[in-house]
Amino acid sequence: MDVKEIESAIAQLPPAELAELAKWFEEFQAQVWDEQIEQDMKAGRLDAPLKQAEMDFERGQCEPL
Questions:
Q1: Is 14 a domain residue?
Q2: N or C terminus of the chain: which is more exposed, having fewer CB within 10 Å?
Q3: pLDDT digits over 19-53, tens only?
Q4: Range of the domain at 14
Q5: CA 42/CA 34 separation, integer angstroms
Q6: How far apart are CA 35 and CA 29, in angstroms?
């Protein structure tokens, strides 16, 4: 099944099933994101940005959100 077929199938869903799919997909994306962050952390790809953020915080160069 290709993307166009998936899009077509989604477009035909009734509203309740579309909402269910949207909820599932949001949770799926969050899980994929979490796994990517974990892999990046284990590989050390976030070490430099985290160190920079810590230094900025210690220097008072951060603003409240």
A1: yes
A2: C
A3: 999 999 999 999 999 999 999 999 999 999 999 99
A4: 3-58
A5: 12
A6: 10
